[in-house]
Amino acid sequence: MQNQTNLKDVGLDQFLDLLVKSTVIPQNEIAGFRLKYQTSEDLFEALDGSKMYSNDKLTEVYAKLKNIPFIRLQVIDAGAMELVDKQMSLKFGFIPFHLDEPTKALQVAITNPLKFKVLNLDAVRDLEARIGYKLEFFIASREQVEALIGQGQIEKIDLTNIKIEPELLRKIPHDLAIKYQAVIFRKNTDGSFDLASSNPTDHKLKELIEFLQKSTSIKINVFFSPPESINRVLDITPKEEKEAQVKVTQEVPESDSILKPEKPEKSEEAQDKALNLPKKEPVVSEDAKTDDKEEPKVEIAQGMEESNLEKFLGKSEITDADIKTYANSDQVPQLVAGVLFMAVLDRASDVHIEPYEKDVRIRFRVDGQLTDAAILPPGMIPNIVARIKILSKLKLDEQRVPQDGRFEITVKTNVIDIRVSSLPTVFGEKIVMRLLNKSQSLDKLEDLGLGEIGYDRIIEAINKPYGVILATGPTGSGKSTTLYSILTRLNKPEVNIITLEDPVEYQLPGINQVQVQPQIGFGFAEGLRSVLRQDPNIIMVGEIRDKETAELTTHAALTGHLVLSTLHTNDAAGALPRLYNLGIEPFLLTSAINAIMGQRLVRKICQKCKEEITIPQSVVFEITKELEKLNLSMPMKFFRGKGCSECKNGFSGRIGIFEVLTVSKEIEDMVLTKKSSDDIFNEAIRSGMITMRQDGFIKVLKGLTTVDEVMRATGQVKEG
Q: What is the reported pLDDT for 286?
């Protein structure tokens, strides 16, 4: 096997230069391509799919870039074709074209150059051992392959004189049919389907087809048909059929969409049904299903392209009845869309889809609390996962390792960025989707819930030209939101602000935000070194995780930068011992630290159904004792939310409870002698710090939250 060590991308700029020299693109297009694409692979795929450039010349230039031989196929050796069966050849994406007996070499042409990047070398070696020949790889253009298509690789079909039934055309949504240049044109007596495409070697089309065949056990036979033949079929689709594919709703069986694989059934009618993927979130059990039901009204157009859920579903609200309908009729696209629609309307921050032995549980995290949203039959999990993977551009056939992806939806006027994480479990892949509302403006610093003393301390800290401001607390305590609010306040034309985040949760105009990628060696420490060469005034480091990042952060603060970061400690006082335990010299910390915030999030009482309540005297006494040192004159009144149509459970939104520690002379001395966090905490209180628990009780008396919420958040759960 040769040429397998030269697969590294040598750069987008070099590819653009070669394209210009080979007259594939003009010089004046370089700047636009450089802005739009990041890698040579991305650019090649875009140019090859545009049909505006010569595939033959484009492929030759790409092969030159990768230092892989380019071959102009004239003939295919039948003996070479016989060595590798058709399915194996399709699997690896190559065409055997010449057999060299003296050297025992089989020369094969890759028809899609991008295949080199994902070529499974171990599988190739297994194939070499099986056939007894060494493989020598070349690249051939798709145009050449199409010219030789009749010599044994993919059969050519002319659709001109073939009558295609409308229900077959509907099996691929019209926009996807155009995108992939593919139509299903025939159903065979054995239950298989024939698909024609002008680009049958397109790796995305093949991935979808292979997944459908694997998940449904229905065979799809692939044919080559010239582009004009495919376009003619798409253009002559009857007007009412086109309308059915672009209208929001149309009375068409959901089973007609090729986007929905499901478990195979034995009957031919059931096999027809198996070519479809659905979308919506139900609260349904097995006994909720009925045998006699009408075919559902289903939107199949723009199946994986339409991001506006109202348009996709044809509804402005989602009811339990809708959810049950989507679940019982296996409409997975509608099911997933419905789950997300309802999650957004319920103000959920996360959606959990969890497979178990006897059911699939869907839960929403609302105001920090997980609640059950739906129970589904266990057989639905493969199709739900497949649908979400398609939307988030994850590998459909990879179920052994975790994957991360993202996509975007629109619900009413809200644009929602969805971060997807898949995790293999015993009963299938678990999916967690984080919902980030890009349309929602960030809270101002004064609206986060900082008390008067804490707010004044933070303002004083951020007004200093340099130093470190830390936000501490467990995951989900609102640390990033607090730092974003500070950055928004500091964001002015005269300052250069750069952030290092994992991930970038909100996009802030006027701020340079960088996504770190530890998996490729670009973590917070590496990023911070680069950022310091970018002349920043203010830096945000998403999290201090190790000694190196802590050292660089301290160094940046001491050399004239204002640095914001987070640290996982239980309270503000715990941050200082954590840092010198990481190896930061105590005398550096006393000079570098401006302020440390400890924080938690508590649920806010719904103001529309708030009512005054009486609580046990023992709890009143404890609150009184906790607040007596603050010399507050507040009436001891307590409230709760009864629960209404707006909030459902008496709570609506969350607010922060804070403590803000500044380094006084006494605390400096304690740090220099490496005192414990308890000692530092007690001294901070003597210096006037209001603790998180005290701040929470003040918010209780103001009617913003409940005693139970504060005790839960601060780890002081009391009965009664």
A: 38
